[in-house]
Amino acid sequence: MAHGHSTDEYLETIYFLAFPIGEYRPTGSGNPTLSARVAEMLGVSRASAGEMLKRLEADGFVERGEHKEAILTPTGRVRAEQVVRKHRIIECWLTGFLGYTAGEAHIHADDLGDSFSDDMIERMNEKLGRPERCPHGWPVETAFEQAENQELAPLAQLAPGERATIVRLAEHDGELLHWFYDNGLAPGTEIEVRAVEPGGREVTVAADGTERAVGAKAAAGLYVRRAA
């Protein structure tokens, strides 16, 4: 482990960075490397992230692409998807049975991931009635998530006047996740884009009759379905 983060936490993070195409590909030389992005999301040094990525590569979970980026192998992707599904079922249990808020559930689910066996998770899933989505709108079944990806767009891509419904919230940043809920930007909320600052620095949306300013980071983490 690197700084207390397990192999599964790294695979889950790489899976998140792969959104929405299923594998990580750099889109330009100006983008941070995968090691840097993983390090930022997990709160570790680039050196620690780099060492763990080397270990994941040696274990057959990750391979290097044409630009030396790390890509999940088929084996790595299967395990990452299992970890992601487990996390989402635990979140449903925390909110549905134990009364935690959606924001709290994400934090506790991270801590509890290694506490439940696969059999326990399947029993939990059955007791919950096989929920379709976690509290933040992400499908529990990753195959459905990937199929749905093509229907969604980050709020940052919408133009003034467009209407949409929030479907998913980026959940890798706990503070940002709490900000979404504190500002009434939960899954299922209908919004209308009122204004977009040049360069996408800020998006103004109307939701439930109230206008809210959404910064660039938050606008990139709100995944919406455009109105027909």
What is the second-level CATH architecture of the largest domain?
Roll
Average pLDDT number? 87
What's the structural domain tally? 3
Q: What is the total tally of β strands?
A: 8
In order across it, which strands form the biggest sheet? 3-8-4-5-6-7
Question: CATH superfamily assignment of the largest domain?
Answer: Ferrous iron transport protein A (FeoA)
The rough form would be described as: globular
Please name the CATH topology of the largest domain: SH3 type barrels
Distance between the termini: 47 Å
The helix/strand class is alpha+beta
Strand content: 15-25%
Q: Which regions contain 5 or more consecutive residues with pLDDT less than 50?
A: none
Which CATH class of the largest domain applies here? Answer: Mainly Beta
Q: What is the count of DSSP helices, taking H or I runs of 4+ residues?
A: 9
Helicity level: 40-55%
Order of helices and strands: HHHEEHHHHEEHEEEHE
Describe the structure in your own words.
The chain contains 9 helices and 8 strands. Strand 5 (190-196) and strand 6 (202-207) form a beta hairpin. It is globular. The strands form 2 sheets. It has a 6-stranded antiparallel sheet with strand order 3-8-4-5-6-7. A two-stranded antiparallel ribbon has the order 1-2. The protein has 228 residues and is of the alpha+beta class. The longest helix is centred in the middle third of the chain and has 23 residues, at 74-96. The relative contact order is 0.11.
